Amino acid sequence: MELLLNVCIYLPLIGIAGILAARNDKATKWISLIVTTATFLLSLPLLFNFDIANSATAQYLTEGNPILAGLDIKYLVGLDGLSLLLFMLTTLFGPIVILSSWDSVKKHLMGYYSMLLLLQTASMGVFASLDLIVFYVFFELSLIPMYFLIGIWGGKGRIHATVKFFVYTLVGSLIMLVGLIYVGYDAGAFIDGFQFTTDWRLLSSGAYQIGLVEQTYLFLAFALAFCIKVPLFPFHTWLPYAHTEAPTAGSVVLAAIMLKMGTYGLLRVCLPLFPNAFTEFAPYMATLAVIGIIYGALVAMVQKDVKKLVAYSSVSHLGFVVLGLFAFNTIAVQGALIQMINHGLSTGALFLIVGMIYDRTHTRDIKDYGGIAKVVPVFAVMFMIATLASIGLPGLNGFIGEFLILNGTFISDVIPQNAFVVFAAMGVILAAVYMLWMYQRVMFGPLKHEENEKLVDLNAREIGLLVPLVIFMVWIGIRPVDFTQYSEQQVQELLESSNEKKTAIRQSASEKELPEWASKLYDVTDELASKTQNK
Amino acid sequence: MNYLHDLNAFLPGVITGIAGLIAVVIDSYKDDHNAIYGLTVFSLLAGLALSIMDMVGPVGTAFSGMITYGGVSSFGNTVVLFGSLFCVLISREYLRAINHDFGEVYAMMLFGTTGMIALTMANNLIMIFIGIETMSICLYVLAGLISERKTGAESALKYFLLGAFSTGFLLYGMALLYGATGSMYLPEIAQAASSSMLFVAGAALLLIGFFFKISAVPFHMWTPDVYQGTPTTITAYMATASKSAAFVGLILVLSKMIPAATAEWAEVIEVIAILTMILGNLIALVQDNIKRMLAYSSIAHAGYLLVGLAAGTPEGYSAVLFYLLAYTIMNVGAFGVVAFYERQQGLDFTDINNYAGLGFKRPLMGVLLSFFLFSLAGIPPFVGFFGKYLVFAAAIDAGFIALAIVGVLASAASVYYYLRPMVYMYFRDPHKDVPIVQSGLIFRSALIVLAIMTVYFGIAFGDLHNLLASYYSGDWIALIGG
């Protein structure tokens, strides 16, 4: 099984080699489809054999030797409760994005499919790696294919969009790199024979504790990188450009998978490593998240371009995920995790659908449509399901995530004000407004444009690639426990151990001299005072 | 016996030196560039193989302590010979296309390489001076290769005048150091090191001489003009082999001669590194000529390398050595692709605007340039990332966190200009239909090998780095002191 995980991660690279060897456009498409389908099928045993009772321990672990003398940097991949579903989401989207580009991409096919496959490997690598340096390498590697996908096969403003995307993301992650190296040397003292380690299993454990002052800086460095990736308000400005200009497959991967790397990073790295800073900054982060929810929804409402509307809805939806993570309790974090999957499914489906209609009409302006539901009934149904899932209609997946997050935030200790929940819930209402209003303007009413009368309904390929997504939307909506069970135990343990770690760090910190701002921020002044009185 | 031992220690330099002499002789008798070319490639290969073997061999001194062999010096030789070899491999086709395929070019490159080898093996100030001068004089000649073009003449003259100026600093520094310590041998100078005015002034002048050679800010003014005016493959030679040699020389001076005072010098180097990184990257942002852009980029890379030297720790030195190899691989590659495009007739193919659409016209060259540029930008999994990573990690470990942050931000800015050629090559349509010629087999293979190395050393850098780290393990100061 360890081998199987590695095969899944690197199979797309072999596909690229095949494409370069074949040098034929038709073969390129088929090789890509076969490789991604094989990756998906091969990843299924990883899901079925996953030991749910032990979800907190990484499974299918491959552990390489440290590559540098004295520095514990090693190839370390495996899946656990946090990463399993995101990994599966990535493999599921593999064949879907290939199929979605089947007829719509016409130039430089070899390059295009190679980039999609490289992106696939990089994304799987991000979710599977448990050594933070390896994580970083895959995290950055994913930028290169996306840069070309937007830049070569994108729309009119593609150059501006792709350079903005690349530079924005890179600035964040380079600052994270400095933090990462610092953590590595800091943690190196905790293991024998090494000066440096980035093994997540050690870093996240209670044994490794970071002082309050250092934690603050490190948290900010890491959180900046991840928040740019998410993107959290006010770091979201690259997203609408990138999404609008990217080809359909690019938008789908960007929304469904790459944005999750940010929220996943917050959960995987920031929460267990810097628990004090994580909880102390939670109200601020939650504020940004809620602003993002409302702001994203309001801006989405006034969009004339369907794709831009969906892009801004992403800003809004991911605000929920960030809110859930910073609520710091099992319900909310579980909700955030399942919401990551939900957002991948429903926004991915929406981008696919927008792409399909764009292929037919070559316009994304809402005013160019209207009344096409009668012409393309199957399309209308699919669009409706995805729209409703995105809004969070009970019975579909979006509801589960949003409900758990709002519920968890309501009872959260670290985000005490219920105002957050109130405003976030308003985001749900706004989502219904902008999505349904858009749906109504595109689908219903009189048929305004004659050329739309001849629209062709979805073909078998297009239906085929939407159906799996719809199945999962309904499945998660009806039986969420089938999905949340994978992470339940790990989330619980992670939060418990992080809480213990937090208390331990606070106690040890109050014995030391802290700068004034730190003791104020972490509110350790009382403890310090009581300590001195006792002496 | 002893004489043989000495010659054997300096064997890579002996081979390239003799090959250079033979090349001159052949060139004066008959116009057979194939023989000269073959001889050059063969001698560089032989030297490279010897240096690689010496990297894991014993460490010692020869010529009565004038040179050291093994360890750092042999690794320095390896980088220099590797860079020279690949520059020669890509030169032939390019020089032919611009009608400057003279036999003397190869002879000069061989002599220059001999000087670089002398520099990387130096254990004595005189040896450093001989190495730098031999290397520089050959480079002055090579810089003026296209003397009929205005930029070529300007480049050669500028390089010569400023080079001579910097040599003055170097020599004056050496004289003062001799006055202060009574010795020319690096380890002996280290023992007699003091904080006397004379010693500090001597060391400072010596460092300034080196800063000229590695084009660190504010001693970088010559770099862009010289790089632009020199034939591109020769620029690659200047930017990689000679710069690597100068850096290894600087490492030797810093680690051997003033190890005790490194902490004091660290602040100076830190300031220079910050200036170099910021200025190099910022000015590179606005360059439209790709050769000038690569020139400023090489200034910026000197800054990253100085970060490792500022750290002054064993990790710092071994990181810098690794970075030198990474830097050589990706820069020879990038200049090589530029040299390929430049051969096309009709447009000025050093102007980045004319790169529009070229990525799809010659897909292989486009992909290769992307590899080298991503590597230069420091994106994993390319070798440039791990070079930067090791250097910044050493700085953070040594407590230079601010320096590392400046470096990281500067390299974030650099991404913008490294992406630009790719934006033009892939994202824009070609201006007009320019016929694009094929690249030759040797040229193409050399660049492909370099591209594979950017990925190979980006992933499998462990063994090499461990070897480099072992040069600085234990009582390394005594060890390399000989």
Outline of this structure?
Chain A is 73% helix and 2% strand.
- Biggest sheet architecture of chain B: 2 strands, antiparallel
Query: What best-fitting shape of chain A do the alpha-carbon axes yield?
Result: globular
What would the average pLDDT of chain B be, to the nearest integer?
Answer: 88
Compute the separation of the termini of chain B in Å.
20 Å
How much is the average pLDDT of chain A? 88
What number of structural domains do the residues of chain B give? 1
- Uncertain residue ranges of chain A: none
**Greatest interface by residues involved:** A-B, 34 and 34 residues
Order of helices and strands of chain A: HHEEEHHHHHEHHHHHHHHHHHHHHH
Instruction: Give a count of the beta strands of chain A, DSSP E runs of length 2 or more.
Output: 4
Number of strands of chain B: 2
Helix content of chain B: over 70%
What is the terminal separation of chain A in angstroms?
A: 58 Å
Given the structure, what is the number of helices of chain B?
Answer: 21
How is this structure best described in words?
- The complex is a heterodimer of chains A (535) and B (482).
- In chain A, 73% of the residues lie in helices and 2% in strands.
- Chain A is mainly alpha-helical and 535 residues long.
- Chain A folds into two domains: 275 residues, no CATH class; 198 residues, no CATH class.
- Chain A has a two-stranded antiparallel sheet with strand order 1-3. Chain A has a two-stranded parallel sheet with strand order 2-4.
- Chain B is mainly α and 482 residues long.
- Chain B has one domain.
- Chain B contains 21 helices and two strands.
- In chain B, a hairpin with a 4-residue loop joins strand 1 and strand 2.
- Chain B is globular.
- Chain B starts with a helix and ends with a helix.
- At the A-B interface, helix 5, helix 6 and helix 7 of A face helix 17, helix 18 and helix 20 of B.
